[in-house]
Amino acid sequence: MTRSVRSRVLRAALAGLVVAGLLPAGLSTSTAAPATTSATAATELPGPAGDKAARPYMGWSSYSMQVYNPNGGSWITADQLIAQSDAMHAKLQPYGYEYINIDAGWNDGIDEYGRPTPSKKLYPNGLQAVIDHIHANGQKVGLYTIPGISQAVIDAKLPIYGAPGCTTGDLPVLPLQKGDYWGIGYRIDFSKPCAQKYIDSIADLFGSWGLDFLKFDSVTPGSGISDLSLDARDDVKAWSQALKRNNIWFELSWALDINYADYWKQYANGWRIDWDVECYCTGTALTAWPNINRLFPKLAEWWRHAGPGGWNDLDSLDVGNGQMDGMTKDERRTAATLWAVSAAPMYVGNDMTRLDSYGLELLTNREVIAVDQAGRPAHPLSMKTNRQVWFALNSDSSYTVALFNLGQTDADMTVNFADLGLNGAGKVRDLWARKDLGTFASSFTAKDVPIHGVRLLKVTPQKGASISVNDDDLRVSYDGAWQRNDNYEVPAVSQALTVGVTDSSAAKAADLPTRTVEVNNNSPEIVYSGNWNYSSGRGLGDYQDDVQWTEGNGDSFSYSFVGTGVDYVTETDAGQGDVDIYIDGEFKQTVSTYLDPAQGHNKPQQVVYSVSDLPNGSHTIRGVKKSGQFMLLDKLNVRQESLLNPDTAVFDKNAPADVSVQLGRDPAELDGIAKAGQDLVKGTDYTVDGNALTISKAYLANLPVGNTALDVRFRGDYRDDIHATKADGASVSFTFTGTGVEWCTALAPDQGDADVYVDGKLVRRVNLHNDTRVTNRTVFSATGLKNAQHVVRIVKVNGDVLRNDTIRYTIAK
Description:
The chain is α+β, with helices and mostly antiparallel strands. 17% of the residues lie in helices and 35% in strands. It folds into five domains: 50-145 and 194-367, TIM Barrel; 387-462, Immunoglobulin-like, CATH 2.60.40; 470-485 and 719-811, Jelly Rolls (Sandwich), CATH 2.60.120; 493-513 and 642-714, no CATH class; 516-639, Sandwich (Jelly Rolls).
């Protein structure tokens, strides 16, 4: 994904001030000593902010208005910041908003120790006076910086405060290496002790000013560069250690690489997961719907990584003024909902002196704010549709449910409680309307959810209901070396048994298909983010004579599948450019869809990316437009291991006979057979004997001549994932309030025994060994518990692997 040239220039111009080589006039500026406070009290939360990061922060950032206003610097003057602080104090602070974050451009030089100094032009009475005003309003203040050190500071060889014998000339990696996205500064060599002392001196200076927050921009891997040609991880670690002793919140930006999520979680309190939300429409709009829409597939990958201590940052929430935001009212509400259900930092990007009544309504709904501050990131039931149900299980056993209509028409949207894990009735409340809607037995349907609109619900289970909790739920606690999936999972999957029905007096049936599944570009299971268009009847040789296309850099498609490989098939043409390909959230390569005009035009059905060695399981491919005038998607070819042997058969109406095939999985895993969505009847239409599946001739005789696909379904692990450990003594625990609990998990040849404790008492040792791998078996249950809080704990005793899949508990009747 690439930003516009304009956005790069604006950000670079502002960021350049942070490491600018402006030497101090007379070397006579502040010589503030290191912060006198010791390191913050020990806390179990990661990141330098300690308990302050137990919940996502709420506040305001100057950046959206800086790029909206032709004179961006006017948005961080002393008068403007004081006006914003006062507006927050009057309008938003009673609802939890408290951070005033000053983005790039606040400084214009350095002191005699190479540390940044505030702009005297912006702050004629000193930045400290502004910070003091913000603090006097009961708020917190943040500043901005980037990795690296400028050439001028290196050449000046300034002494480092509090580090005798160290100078800034000692700090860079030699030979010099680019230190940030824009090439403003150079990398610091953190193998040298003086390097950490330099960062400490700046962090301590910030601490002496009373700084509460630091945004660290241009962090790599991320920020458009993930090949490690730029790598700011050492900077992140050094700044984290320096800020920790000052208890300063540390926020990373931008578009951080998810493959290093564990690193960001260890050293930071938040991380931007995507590119800027701003549209860079100076004087016209702050943002645009495509910049919101593209966040959904990103959050589907990132949600598991957020929690107390560190949060997924979606950038500024620009929903406060309809004349500036660049979105419809429905889109503004959808954005506010997405931030809230994702437990993302809620920081406003608008001019807070000009919030309209609808913007205030969105930003001050206490029930919606409570969803955000509960810190329970929601996740989608499926990304295979543009009408998406996102949900989170809360600590009180209620569910937060968001029904997002990302499609192109209004639509009724239904949430089935069983899909959430709720077996029983639920009371439904509309959080935006602040209205109870009633109690529903098994599902709820929201009528006429508008285009790009949303309904935000709270579903409260009723007495006697049971709740299934997936292994990756944030309420599940793991102790020891555990990993999610890593080919220990078995996903649900289906395979077509194609029966060629013939009549010896009729023409022969068509050739039977292979095991490669072709997914056309108009499949509803492909999720398009951005401004995509559909074109058919082109007559250029496209698969099924149609394509999906877009012109917007950053627009993307994603598709989730079960299999071992996938091809991205598209047209190549001189009007097309590069596409970044991600598999399971990991960047794989940039592929070219450009065709030299000398080689012709519009070459259809070209395989521009292919992978065939994926472990058999669930995967997602995502393609992101990087360059060129157009990006097209024609089809995806998915390769799957065969679960039927053979996967084709022939039935002759003039010589009828049963059709039998062998199942490639345990027959107990067969979930059913269907034709065009209509289930066949077991025992009548088909039978299973051992691994032999037989379709009766009586059923087949009613099929028309030609090829008929029977969908043979196999169940998988709950939500197609598990957690696994190989370490004896590793454990998983779950706290619940109820009267009963069950543990449902896999049985497999590589498993052994596990001990199950309830409220600290060993209740049972269960054996999880089985000759074949089977899914979602109830291996432990306890009933008749007192209606109170309980803890179930499961400990690996022996065997190669222990898998955890589902814990189910029952609410008192």
